[in-house]
Inverse folding.
C-alpha cells in the first residue's frame, strides 16, 4: 500500500476536472450489446450527459451515430475524463496516449490487475507510474464506473440514474454500490457522486474522503469499505471531515467469514484493516451492518434538520403502530416523554373523547387535515421534544384509491364524479400535509420523520419547491426509529465529542 | 379477563362456520362512501366472495345493486357470519336478532366498548353474554375485520386482497395488521386467515391459536400481541402448537414507552402480560422486534424446506455482496464453511481462473445459465452445507431491461429484433433458474434463499406449478440471513427442544 505517496500527491491531482468533466472519451467503445464498451457508452449517451462524448476504437467508424476515433490522440479538442474498457495488456499504451493528449482523469474499468495475480500486480504498478508521470487521476482499475449526476454523467454497467443531490457514495464493491444506487434512484435520493473505487491503485478511500470534504455538492458521505490501508490515518481524516459532513460506513469483513470473503474479493487483509466498531464510534462515524441502512441514513441526514436531543413525539394513525414505534425508540436509546396537560388539552380539542391522551398521540383515524398538522406542531413547539415520528398520514391515499376502486366495481350505479372528487381531495390532502410538515421543520428546526401507511413506488423522499427540508416517509416504523437514533447519536458526537451510547 | 370461561367453551363454538362462511350479512350496510358499512360491503363484493351477501339497513332498499333487509330476521335462508357496523348502543338488540336467526359468527367492527370507558365495558360484558347464550362466536368488538382468502372473503377497511395460502395472522392491532396484509399482498404471501382480534371480549389469542392448530389451511402462524391474559396458559398452548406449526410473535409493549402506549391502546397491563423474550424462546417461539420481519419469516417458513443445521453456502454475483452476507451469517450464529477441493474443482470448470475459489462462490458476472445452477447444486449436494443463499441471479433481467432501453435510446440504428431477443432470453433465463432451484430444493430437501439483484414490484415469492417449494427472493441480503437464522433456530428447537443460541 502506497498511501503516503498517493497522499502527498493528492493535492496536485486534477480531481475537479475528473469529477466535473466537460468531455469524455470511451476507449474501447463497442457496438456490441453487453460488452463493457457498449454498456458504458450507451449509458452515458442515454443518460443525457451534457458534455462531449468521443468513442475510441481502432476497428469501427460509427457507434451509436457518433464518429469513432482510432486513437485518443485523434480527437479534436480536450478530453477531461477517459473511460477505458480494453484488455489489461493494452492499457499501458492507451494511458501513455491519454497522458500525451492531456487527459485529466482515467476511469479504468478493465480488470485483471492486482486482484487477479502477480503479473497483474506488476502491471498495476506500471500503470500507476504512467498516470503519476502524466499527472492523471486514476480511478480503479477493476472499477464498475462512476456516476456524477451534477454533470448528468452516468457511467456504470447498471443503468441506474439517480437524481442529483448531496449524497456521495464511495464503494469498494462495484456490485454492492451499483445495487444501492439503483435503490437510491427508486427512493428518490439525490446523489452528488458515486465511485466504484475498484483496486484503489492510486486513489484510495482516504483520498476520496479528502476530496469530498471540499466538494461543494456533497453534504453526506457513504462508504462501503473492506480495507482502508492505514487505519489510523483513515480515522484521523474521517474524524475531522465527519464534523462537517456526516460519514456513514458499512465495513465488510467484520467477522471471520466476512473477512475470508473480503480477502478473496479485494485482497484485503483483516489484520491490516480491522478497525473496530468502537474505533469508528470514537471518530463519530455512524456504522451500519447492512447495506440498505446506508441509504436510510443518507435520507435522514440529507433531508431533515438534525435533532438536538433524544426525546421523541410519536403521532400515529392507529394504536399498534404507535406501540411498536415506542418500543423501538426505547430499545434504541430514545425517550418517549409523557406530555404536559396543556398539549393534551390542545390536541384533545380535535379528537374524540376516548383518544390516547398521551404520547404516542393516536389520531384514531381522523380525516381532518388540520388534526395531524396540529398534533405535529404542538409536539414540535414543546421544548420537551426534539423530534417527531409521524406514522401514516402519507400513504393513506393509496388505501383510498383501493376503496374507490372497490366502490366502482361493486356498484355500477356508483357516483363516478363524486368518487373522482374524493380521489382528488385525498391526493391533495397528502400534498398539503407534506408541504405543512416541511414548513414546520423549518420553523422549529426539528425533524419530522414520516412512515408511509402503504408501501408505494413513490419513493421515500417528497420534495417541496423552495423548502429547506424535505418530506421523508420511510416504509416501516423501524427504519424511522433507526435513522432518528443514528442522527441523535451523530448530534451528540458533534456537541460532546462523544457518541451517544445507543 | 375470562380466559378460563372462553377456554372451556372453545370447543363448543362454531369456529368452522365462522371461518368458512357460506353466507354473510352486513348489519349497518351503507351506500355512503367511507362509512364502515360501505367499506366492508364493497370490499366483500369487489373481492369476489363466493357465498351469498345480505346487506341489512332499516332505511335503505338497494345498496350496490343488492336488495337490503330491514332486519337480519328478514333474510331468506341461513347466515353464517354477520359483520356489524352499527353504533354500540344498538349492538345488543342486533345480536339478539342474530341469535334467533341462527347466525354462527359475529365480526363486531363497532368500537366504544371496553376500550372506551366503564359504560363500554359493561356493554361489552352484556354482548358477550348474549353471544354465549346463542352459541355465537364473537370476533371483536373494535376489530378492523377479517380476511379469509380461501373463501375469497375480504372484509376489512383496507382493501388489500392477499392470495390464498398457508399463513395465518392474528393481530391485536387492526391498523398494524391491515398494513402488513397490504405488504403481504404486494410480496405475494399466501394467507389462510387474517383476524383483527380487537378487544378479544370472547375469543382471545389463545383461542385463535387453538383453532389454527387444527385448521387444515394454516401451516405458519403470525401473532401481533400486546397482552395475552394468562401468560402461562399462552406459553403452554404455544409450545405445543409451535411443534406442528411455527409461531412467530411480535410483542408490543416490551419497553416502558411501548408498555405505556399499549396500556392506552388495548388497555393491556404490563404486569399481567409481560412475557419475556426468554420465555418465548423457551416455548420455541420465534420473536420479532419489527413488523416487517413477521412477513419475512412467514415467507421462509411457508415456502422453503427447513434447514437441518446452520452451515451456509453463499453464491454471489459480485464480491462485496458476498462479504456482507458472510458477515451477516457469522453475526447471526450461522457458519460459512470452507469448501472441499472437489467442489472447488467442479465449480471452477465453469469460471475464469481468477474466481474466488471458496465460499462465498463469486460467479464473477457469468451469463451462462448453467453456472449458478451448478454452483447451487454442488453446494446442496455436499453434506457440509445445510442451506444456500444465492445473491442476484434473479433481478438481473431488470438490469438487462434498463440496458436495452439505453441501447435503443442512444442508437437509432440499434437492431431492435436482436434486442427483443435478448430481452426474451434474459427473462426466460430467470424463469428457468427459478424452476431449477425449486427442483433442487425438492431433491436435496435444503433451502435455497434468494436475494434479488434489483428491487422490483414482482414480489418476494415466485411460484412454479407442481413444485413443493417456492422460489424466494428477498430484497436485501440481511433479510435472507435473518430469516435463515430464524429457521435454523426453530429447527434446533424442534430437534433438541432448546432454541439455537442466536
Amino acid at each position: 500500500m502506497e498511501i503516503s505517496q498517493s497522499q502527498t500527491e493528492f493535492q496536485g491531482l486534477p480531481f475537479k476536472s475528473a469529477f466535473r468533466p466537460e468531455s469524455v472519451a470511451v476507449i474501447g467503445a463497442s457496438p456490441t450489446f453487453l460488452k463493457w464498451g457498449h454498456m458504458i457508452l450507451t449509458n452515458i449517451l442515454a443518460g443525457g450527459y451534457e458534455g462531449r462524448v468521443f468513442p475510441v476504437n481502432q476497428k469501427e467508424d460509427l457507434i451509436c451515430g457518433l464518429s469513432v476515433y482510432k486513437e485518443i490522440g485523434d480527437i479534436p479538442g480536450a478530453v477531461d475524463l477517459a473511460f477505458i474498457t480494453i484488455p489489461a495488456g493494452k492499457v499501458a499504451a492507451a494511458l501513455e496516449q491519454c497522458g500525451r493528449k492531456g487527459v485529466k482523469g482515467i476511469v479504468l474499468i478493465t480488470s485483471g490487475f492486482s486482484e487477479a495475480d502477480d503479473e497483474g500486480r506488476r502491471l498495476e504498478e506500471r500503470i500507476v507510474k504512467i498516470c503519476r508521470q502524466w499527472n492523471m487521476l486514476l480511478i480503479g482499475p477493476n472499477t464498475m464506473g462512476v456516476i456524477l449526476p451534477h454533470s448528468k454523467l452516468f457511467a456504470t454497467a447498471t443503468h441506474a440514474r439517480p437524481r442529483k443531490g448531496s449524497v456521495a457514495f464511495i464503494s469498494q464493491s462495484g456490485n454492492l454500490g451499483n445495487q444501492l444506487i439503483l435503490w437510491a434512484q427508486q427512493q428518490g435520493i439525490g446523489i452528488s457522486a458515486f465511485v466504484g473505487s475498484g483496486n484503489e491503485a492510486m486513489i484510495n478511500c482516504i483520498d476520496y474522503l479528502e476530496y469530498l470534504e471540499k466538494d461543494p455538492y456533497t453534504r453526506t458521505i457513504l462508504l462501503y469499505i473492506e480495507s482502508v490501508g492505514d487505519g489510523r490515518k483513515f480515522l484521523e481524516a474521517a474524524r475531522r471531515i465527519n464534523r462537517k459532513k456526516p460519514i456513514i460506513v458499512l465495513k465488510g469483513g467484520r467477522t471471520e467469514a466476512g473477512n475470508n470473503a473480503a480477502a478473496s474479493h479485494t485482497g484485503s487483509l483483516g489484520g491490516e484493516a480491522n478497525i473496530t466498531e468502537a474505533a469508528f464510534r470514537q471518530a463519530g462515524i455512524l456504522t451500519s451492518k447492512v447495506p440498505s441502512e446506508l441509504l436510510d441514513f443518507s435520507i435522514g441526514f440529507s433531508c431533515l434538520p438534525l435533532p438536538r436531543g433524544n426525546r421523541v413525539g410519536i403521532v400515529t394513525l392507529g394504536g399498534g403502530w404507535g406501540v411498536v414505534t415506542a418500543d423501538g425508540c426505547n430499545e434504541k436509546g430514545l425517550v418517549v416523554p409523557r406530555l404536559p396537560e396543556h398539549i393534551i388539552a390542545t390536541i384533545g380539542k380535535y379528537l374524540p373523547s376516548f383518544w390516547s391522551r398521551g404520547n404516542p398521540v393516536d389520531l384514531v383515524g381522523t380525516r381532518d387535515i388540520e388534526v395531524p398538522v396540529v398534533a405535529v406542531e404542538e409536539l414540535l413547539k414543546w421544548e420537551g421534544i426534539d423530534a417527531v415520528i409521524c406514522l401514516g398520514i402519507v400513504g393513506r391515499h393509496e388505501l383510498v384509491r383501493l376503496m374507490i376502486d372497490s366502490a366502482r366495481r361493486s356498484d355500477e350505479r356508483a357516483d363516478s364524479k363524486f368518487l373522482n372528487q374524493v380521489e382528488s381531495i385525498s391526493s391533495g390532502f397528502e400534498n398539503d400535509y407534506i408541504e405543512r410538515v416541511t414548513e414546520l421543520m423549518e420553523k422549529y428546526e426539528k425533524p419530522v420523520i414520516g412512515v408511509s401507511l402503504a408501501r408505494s413506488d413513490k419513493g421515500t423522499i417528497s420534495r417541496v419547491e423552495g423548502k429547506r427540508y424535505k418530506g421523508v416517509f420511510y416504509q416501516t416504523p423501524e427504519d424511522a426509529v433507526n435513522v432518528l437514533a443514528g442522527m441523535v447519536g451523530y448530534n451528540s458526537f458533534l456537541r460532546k465529542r462523544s457518541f451517544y451510547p445507543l
